[in-house]
Amino acid sequence: MRDSSRMTTDLLSDLLHVARAQCRLSGRLAAGGSWGRRFDNLDAVKFCAAVEGSCWFFMDGMASPLPFERGDILIMNGSRPLVLASEPHLTADAVMTPLAADGNGNYRLGEGNDFVMLGGMVQIDKGHQRLLLGGLPSFIRVGSAQPEAASIGWLLEQIIREMEPPVRPGGNIILAGLAQLLFVQTLRAYVMQSPTSDGGWLKALGDRRLAPALAALHAEPGRAWNLEDLANEAGMSRTSFVVHFREVMGVPPLTYLTNWRMRLAERELSAGASVAEVAEAVGYTSESAFAHAFKRVTGAAPGAYRKTFESRRSVALRGTVDDEAATAF
């Protein structure tokens, strides 16, 4: 019988926690008149939130530009440039023009405030970038007419209020928290749409057949899972489960299990756990078998990986942590 307690496993929180995904605001962009701009920041997760007016957005692979209106949110996985413009035809020739920020972190295109948006970046632990980027489609669009729009709209209002002068005590912490909530709320809204055309783990969270199997696997990653067990969790035959899992996730079920175990192992090793402790925690009775799997998946031996993070912690304690804050503009 299926253990219903496993169904409480929060897969989205689990994945974002392991990837150490933290959303940070980059500033506010105001545009007016006739304008178009290309945003080429690639290999990073970015988000844009329309807070006033409207414009048009376009990305490679789209049939035509689509409206980007007040209350809409875009999240992009950094695989394709984003183009925004005041009119659909202006997206074709848009280029990446320099933008300068004023003292309040505001950027400008053209004259006026016909369109205003907030921009941000999602910082991800370097070792887990492929986990988050691989699970997101090229872009996610959550519109102001969707069921979760009220919560998203409230968060946007709070962010705008906190960004207005004068600066209030604790403002930076509150803005960081609101930005993180906005990012996660947008992902939640997208998952609740039950997307059918996008691949990766984000799609699987909305798949009623795969979600129970993934919840069970994430609840007990160290268990000696086999295909029959996972198929039973999904309520499917073994063959149907394997085929469906691979179609959605892009890898076979047991390959996903191994990869997830190694993501967990990376987290524990970077926190200072011993190789033996980590091997046991992720389901390996043999330290050598774990070391072989870890190196095959990550390209590094677990001991060497652990020492790398020990060195980084030592540098951090000396106050020379590298700040990789980036701008969405």
Q: Descriptors for this entry?
A:
nine-stranded mixed beta sheet; 2 domains; 329 residues; Jelly Rolls; Arc Repressor Mutant, subunit A; alpha+beta
Written description of the protein model:
Keywords: DNA-binding, Plasmid, Transcription, Transcription regulation. GO terms for molecular function: DNA-binding transcription factor activity; sequence-specific DNA binding. The chain is of the alpha+beta class. It has 2 domains: 4-10 and 201-313, Homeodomain-like (Arc Repressor Mutant, subunit A, Orthogonal Bundle), CATH 1.10.10; 15-192, Jelly Rolls, CATH 2.60.120.10. Helix content is 43%, strand content 18%. The protein has helices at 11-19, 129-135, 149-163, 171-192, 201-205, 210-219, 227-234, 238-249, 253-270, 275-281, 287-298, 302-317, and strands at 22-32, 36-39, 45-59, 66-69, 73-76, 82-85, 106-110, 115-123, 139-142. Strands 1, 2, 3, 4, 5, 6, 7, 8 and 9 form a 9-stranded mixed beta sheet that branches. It is globular. The termini are far apart. The model is unreliable at 1-8 and 313-326 (pLDDT under 50).
Summarize the structure.
The protein is α+β, with helices and mostly antiparallel strands.
| Helix-and-strand structural type | alpha+beta
User: What's the number of helices?
Assistant: 12
Q: How large a portion of the residues is in β-strands, by DSSP E? A: 15-25%
N-to-C series of helices and strands: HEEEEEEEEHEHHHHHHHHHH
Please give the alpha-carbon distance between the first and last residues.
52 Å
Query: Briefly, what CATH class of the largest domain?
Result: Mainly Beta
Query: What's the number of domains?
Result: 2
CATH superfamily of the largest domain, called what?
Answer: Jelly Rolls
Averaging pLDDT over every residue, what do you get? 83
SS elements, strand count: 9
Q: Determine the CATH topology of the largest domain.
A: Jelly Rolls
What CATH architecture of the largest domain do you see? Answer: Sandwich
Major pleated sheet:
9 strands, mixed
Q: What is the helix fraction of residues, given as a range?
A: 40-55%
Protein name: Transcriptional regulator, AraC family
Keywords: DNA-binding, Plasmid, Transcription, Transcription regulation
Pfam families: Cupin_6, HTH_18
Organism: Paraburkholderia caribensis MBA4
